[in-house]
Write a structure and sequence with these properties.
β1 and β2 form a beta hairpin. It is built from ten helices and two strands. Strands 1-2 form a two-stranded antiparallel ribbon. The chain has three domains: 2-73, no CATH class; 126-177, no CATH class; 181-217. With 218 residues, it is mainly α. α6 (126-138) crosses α8 and α7 (145-158) crosses α9. It is 63% helix and 3% strand. The N and C termini lie far apart (127 Å).
């Protein structure tokens, strides 16, 4: 039956050829083939035919023919002005002209990017890069372009290179970087000195209260 549908034609009436195709070698196998043919098929000039198979094959061919005709009517240039453009036409429409503004040679490069294209760690010590990546991974902070642009911007504010900023991050366990974090201690030092002096003054007052004025002159 599979062979019938594959060839879309009646089965060969030549028994020798049929037995060879079906690999019917023994007499029992050959007799079984003869029984099936005589019971389910009809001998015609074209060979052993099967009415149901012929009907299904004819219906399939008719459906395929109708589908092909419909496609030809829909996409055929002679009958449809809105038909699908050819590959050459699509390529010609998609190809930019020499006067297209976005790709002119005189166009100035965009200045909106804070970091250059490519590797944001270019030129930085590989060990520092490795340590910084490990630090960000440990703190579950992804290394994104936005994050690196921010670090680079803060490094510029602090007057240090990006490599130096990342080195400081690794040394202090920072996943990010702010210019104020390294410039603040210099401004805070006077406050620390005043606290120390205040402590000394408090200690002197306590000594006076405990030992009196005479102890101070000794």
């Amino acid at each position: 039956m599979d062979r019938y549908y594959t060839t879309e034609s009646a089965i060969n009436s030549d028994e020798s050829a049929l037995f060879r195709v079906l690999r019917a070698r023994s007499e029992e196998e050959k007799e079984a083939v003869r029984v099936v043919l005589s019971e389910f098929f009809t001998m015609t000039p074209a060979g052993w035919a099967h009415k149901r198979c012929d009907a299904e094959i004819a219906a399939f061919k008719e459906k395929s023919s109708k589908s092909a005709d419909a496609a030809n009517k829909r996409w055929g240039k002679s009958s449809n002005a809105d038909a699908m453009p050819t590959h050459t036409e699509r390529t010609a429409d998609a190809m930019p002209t020499n006067n297209q503004e976005p790709i002119t040679n005189n166009q100035e490069p965009s200045k909106s990017k804070a970091t250059p294209d490519g590797d944001p760690f270019d030129g930085i010590d590989p060990q520092v890069v490795s340590d910084f990546k490990a630090l960000r991974t440990k703190q579950r902070a992804a290394i994104t372009k936005t994050a690196m642009d921010g670090i680079r911007r803060e490094a510029d504010k602090a007057g240090v290179s990006l490599g130096d900023a990342l080195t400081i991050c690794c040394e202090r366990g920072w996943r990010g970087f702010k210019a104020d974090w390294i410039t603040q201690p210099a401004r805070a030092s006077p406050q620390k000195a005043s606290i120390y002096e205040q402590g000394q003054a408090n200690a002197a007052i306590a000594k006076k209260m405990i030992f009196g004025e005479a102890n101070e002159t000794v």
